[in-house]
Amino acid sequence: MIRNVTATKTPGADFDAIVIGGGFGGLYAVHKLRNDQGLHVKAYDNASDVGGTWYWNRYPGALSDTESFCYRFSFDKELLDQGSWQTRYLTQPEILEYLNNVADRFDLRSSYQFNTKIVSTRFDEATGLWHVVTDKGETASAKYLITGLGLLSAINKPTFCGIDDYAGDIYHTGAWPEGVDLSGKRVGIIGTGSTGIQVIIALAPQVKHLTVFQRSAQYVVPIGNWPEDTETIDTYKANYDEIWKQIKSSNVAFGFVESTVAGIDVPEAERECVFEEAWQRGGGFRFMFETFNDVAISDEVNTSAANFIKRKIAKIVKDPEIARKLTPGDIYAKRPLCATDYYGVYNRKNVSLADVKDDPIAEFTTRGIRLASGIEHELDAVIFATGFDAVDGNYTKIDIRGRGGVTIRDKWADGPLGYLGMMEADFPNMFMILGPNGPFTNLPPSLESQVEWISDTIATMEADGRSTIEPTQEAEDAWVETCRTIANMTLFPKAESWIFGANIPGKKNAVMFYLGGLGNYRSELQSVRNSGYESMIFDRQTATTAL
User: Fold this and answer.
1) Cα–Cα dist 159/504, whole Å
2) What ranges do the domains of the chain cover?
3) Rounded to two decimals, what is the model's pTM?
4) What residues does 370 pair with on adjacent strands?
5) What pLDDT, in 10s, does the model give residues 178-220?
6) What number does CATH give the domain 15-154+390-546?
7) H-type alpha helices, 317-375
8) Exposed, middle or buried, 175 (CB in 10 Å: 0-12/13-18/19+)?
9) Beta pairing partners, 188
10) How far apart are the first and last CA of the chain?
11) Cβ-based neighbour number of residue 472 at 10 Å
């Protein structure tokens, strides 16, 4: 049902709810609150249209590493049945087209104001309302504030001496302009994370010369991106009930059944066979979680997986010195990467590798990049594939103030906190979609779970006549400790990774995800509902006023 609600139910407010963000999370929040509940909703996004992360990340080779059949919403059966795709993984244009179709289907754009950035938000204790201010100086108020700011959208662009003197073009993959043609040019790319490897693979056949500035060598397995025909897609559609049941009860929610076999109990030769089968099938999360259940837990099994990939690198890369530079020295415990023949790219004559951990970037010159050794790489264009200030980056960039004027920046000075990945003590009626300490999974099923919980919670508040809701500090502290405890049971904290903030200079290393799996996470959400929200404080300012 599509509603164009214009009457606000909240006395004294401009709107019942304000939603920030036009990606998967923001779109679904507008649909649930406006179309399902009939609330008056105002939504903002700084892009010119919907898409969120996939609006901005238009870089060459942009691709989801979640399989096409489950990188989508599950809440609407007809929407699922209408889905179509060409290959096993969705390209950026396909994802953007899909989100545009969702916006059209549910008339979501009518609630949005685009090309608008929110610069500050403030909770007014006297009225119980949130007030937002845009970059245009406009203001709006609402009872509920829902933020779909995105895990990976606050771009990280390192600073380098001399960069303003560089005469060539500079791009960041997270804000890629339209119409860029790098054919026949000398291009440098800084960064070899998930985005970097996609750009490297896409540009290598196009450019005159590609220089890769690598800080950290990566474990990259094949992606296995083959075409999927109508018969295959129809089989997925016919089995969606069971598929989504499995996804929502699984750990990583990538559409496969995670292994229950402990690699530590399997002989090394048999492990090798299992890894080889996974290598041939493709998929980063499959390689880490479908092979054995302890690749990210057991030092021995992790070493087996890492050594398997290292042997592949040595076999694929023809130049032994380049192979050595591409071989990781860290454990295999970052977000698992996958791509089409990444290591094979370095066999091309027009691709060179600069190991900037051994020979750091000293400065930009007018003609290119000079390393500490004095070697200068002349470049027509430089691409920053340096990722994002993930999870909390967009929150600390906005002046968000809760009770008593406390800011998110201050509360998260030693690392982001957050209850259930959605709420923060002292910030009443603020709900974060994919906020800190939420599940580490394929994102659409997780954000769907969160938006539905948020919507149900708001519906309960409206039915019961509640004014505010916020977690107790004790509940938040316990949740953060749970996230830390689970993370420390794995090998992930031992690797330098963006999932702990290690990619941002000066940022304190902190746990930012719940690594207990989507199934367990959904059970936690259900427990909060079943308990009557005993971990929450309702109507706090009313109680204070009464005293």
Assistant:
1) 11
2) 15-154+390-546
3) 0.94
4) 363, 376
5) 889 999 999 999 999 999 999 999 999 999 999 999 999 999 9
6) 3.50.50.60
7) 320-326
8) middle
9) 211, 382
10) 44
11) 14
